[in-house]
Design goal:
Keywords: ATP synthesis, Hydrogen ion transport, Ion transport, Transport. By secondary structure, the protein is α/β, with parallel strands linked by helices. Helices cover about 35% and strands about 20% of the residues. It has 3 domains: about 5-75, Elongation Factor Tu (Ef-tu), domain 3 (Beta Barrel), CATH 2.40.30.20; about 80-360, Rossmann fold (3-Layer(aba) Sandwich); about 370-455, no CATH class.
Length: about 450
């Protein structure tokens, strides 16, 4: 039998404290009714101590006091209904439909905290997802089941890059018609014009029918912001492991998520850690990121691209720093390239994909992919060194070989890294373009490429 509590100990913003409780569980859902306005709210237990509990409210907490609330503990975790009908729909951060399409009717409700994935049952990520972005597909290839974040900065075009990836991403296997591919997009703390940009971009590209959107706006409660990525990942797990789709999850902005955790931690008067963030920030991020992957014997996969903006472009900030420990590489955007008008401004030298080596090659992309990638990286790295030298001695004093390296670097940035917002390149076209640029350099300088491949492609 459910018990109703009318006496509260304390109300602090969107947090309420109660005591004298019986058999309350961590994460349990709470129904809250304002006895004056009759408004119904939803909450979740986020702290338990003896017979006391702290509940966070999802929604507007204005007008809430210790005397006008009726609280009922539901005896179940936070759950959302899921079915194949979620594709093409837009939901709030707590899984409520916001697209005038009505609620999702389903006989199955899923715990947003997910089910722990047995490490022994995990399948090693293989094969790749083609994003159509040359810089990503060639040098930091996205592998199915991987966690590959985008590290950006304020004012850089990470939103445009995310929208382009969602529009263009597909499974690169021959013969696929895209029916088993889906995208889950989660926006946290986004301005409404930014959210409209994403939605309009998907509709204009005609891909909305394979996208599920969970959107938390900047003026929505921060408690909703904390639950939004969990709802999105739960939907992704459902589509992947029950509907057997290959799901790409894009979450932006993880910095907004971290700041919400910090604000709630401050309200709870917890001991702060680095830069005021809670000490459990690492484990909280890991609980989200580690939900990506594949399960042995189950068709389907969850691939994750979290996007975060680095305050003051500081890659040692707690959120990008801890994200780097958990994930398998990173895509770093460059303010210098962006200042030159190059889009997408991907910093090749600071970016990497740790799983790339196991998802490329003759079986997956093309036999020359690994060697071409290594040579592009080495040649562009050499270009950066020569540019520094040219600033000291002057470009006219450089050797002929170094001047060719500079020519390669300039064309590499403008013609290879740079591409249009609506331009998509297949992996074959990407590698062909790479060879076109590598032919600028002397054949004997391409030491990272197997001589047999050099004879075939050069």
């Amino acid at each position: 039998m459910k018990k109703e509590y009318l006496s509260l100990d304390n109300v602090n913003g969107s947090l309420i404290d109660l005591s004298g409780l019986h058999h309350v569980k961590y994460g349990e859902i709470v129904s809250i009714t304002n006895s004056e306005t009759k408004e119904e709210l939803v909450g979740r237990v986020i702290g338990i101590s003896d017979d006391k509990a702290t509940v966070q409210i999802f929604g507007e907490s204005m007008g809430v006091s210790t005397e006008n609330l009726r609280v009922v503990f539901e005896g179940r975790p936070f759950e959302i209904p899921l079915s194949p009908a979620i594709l093409g729909r837009r939901f709030s951060g707590i899984g409520q439909a916001i697209d005038n399409g009505g609620p999702i009717y389903s006989g199955k409700f899923y715990n947003v905290n997910g089910q722990p994935m047995n490490p022994v049952a995990r399948e090693y990520p293989r094969n790749f997802i083609q994003t159509g972005i040359r810089a990503i597909d060639s040098v930091m290839t996205l592998i199915r089941g991987q966690k590959l974040p985008i590290f950006s900065g304020s004012g850089l075009p990470h939103n445009e890059l995310a929208a382009q990836i969602i529009r263009q991403a597909n499974i690169a296997d021959s013969g696929k018609d895209g029916a088993d591919f889906a995208v889950v997009f989660c926006g946290m703390g986004l301005k409404r014009e930014v959210a409209s940009f994403f939605t309009d971009s998907f509709m204009e590209a005609g891909v909305m029918d394979k996208v599920v959107i969970y959107m938390n706006y900047a003026d929505d409660p921060i408690m909703e912001r904390i639950i939004a990525p969990k709802c999105a990942l739960t939907a992704a797990e459902y589509l992947a492991f029950e509907e057997h789709k290959h799901v790409l999850v894009i979450m932006t902005d993880m910095t907004s998520y971290g700041e919400s955790l910090r604000e709630v931690s401050s309200q709870r008067q917890e001991v702060p850690s680095r830069k005021g963030y809670p000490g459990y920030l690492y484990s909280d991020l890991a609980a989200l990121y580690e939900r990506a992957g594949m399960i042995r014997g189950v068709e389907g996969s969850v691939t994750l691209i979290p996007i975060l903006t680095m305050p003051s472009d500081d890659i040692t900030h707690p959120i990008p720093d801890l994200t780097g420990y958990i994930t398998e590489g990173q895509i770093v955007l460059s303010r210098d390239l962006n200042g030159q008008g190059i889009y997408p401004p991907v910093n090749i030298l600071d970016s990497l994909s740790r799983l790339m080596k196991d998802g490329i090659g003759e079986e997956y992309t093309r036999k020359d992919h690994a060697d071409v990638s290594a040579q592009l990286f080495a040649s562009y790295s050499r270009c950066i060194e020569v540019r520094s030298l040219a600033q000291i001695i002057g470009e006219e004093e450089l050797s002929e070989g170094d001047q060719k390296i500079l020519t390669f670097g300039k064309r590499f940035e403008n013609e290879f890294i740079g591409q249009g917002f609506n331009e998509s390149s297949t992996i074959g076209q990407t590698l062909d373009k790479a060879w076109e640029l590598l032919r600028i350099l002397p054949k004997d300088s391409l030491v990272r490429i197997d001589p047999k491949l050099l004879e075939e492609y050069y």
